[in-house]
Amino acid sequence: MRICRIRGIQFSINIWFLALLGVYFAAGVLGKGLVAFAVVFLHELAHVWMARRKGIPVSDVELLPFGGVARMSGELVVEPRKEMAVAAAGPLTNLALCALALGLGHYGIWHHELAPYFIQCNLLLFLFNLLPGLPLDGGRVCRAYLAQYVNLPAATYRMATCGQFWGIVITVLGTVGLLGHLTGLDIIATGLFLFYAARRQKQEAPYLYAHHLASKNRDLQKYGVLPGQVMVARGDVPVWRVTQQFVPQRYHFVYTVDGQGRYTGMVGEAEVIRALLEEGAGTPLDRVRKGF
Q: Could you say which of 23, 31, 243, 260 has the lowest number of CB atoms within 10 Å?
């Protein structure tokens, strides 16, 4: 459901979040629901602000119960430092809002029911997004860190698996809490949605190779030079094993050798990824070197 457009960015609210607001309304505490909405909205605005500051285009933002999803240019995920900064902006904003609320309370600007709930929402959103799993902010920071040492799809797959794990844990704990009359259905719904969103991230992981390569090609055209990295592999090694060593913002050259370690040729990263996408993950490097 679309709610507004700010400086060319379309903001919408996910049906799960809309249902949660309906629960607040039915329970007669719509004010708390609107506070939760405002906290999530400001959280996402922080992501958008940081993304634009880093030169990353943002098209639209969907608000979810645990934060939101900002659809940004694919170049963000292939630039680890930028992704870390954009991901961290949301939780840090929640901490800043807590400090602001406490400061206003010292000056008498305080609502005895909504102000504590405002602080509670910010702390919960902050802590929840620290969990190391996609699509949470903690998962994005961890992926950006891992992408400096392993390839981007592998880092994405690993953190998406962690996101599914946390989704299951939250769903189980929410079910136990519901049976014990300690929590409501919102915890279970959040866990299920987290599991679903993490599963989508995992399914999209293989397609990040295209973004990976396109980003390097853009940087090469723009700057004329790109840091390189040399690798050595036997010619019978499949391309998937080689791409596991590829990292963003470096262009890789693979020197191939035979069983006795003698040099047989060289292939570039572009040829390896093209073989992976067109011929399959099991394509040996010798076949790539010969033009498959």
A: 260
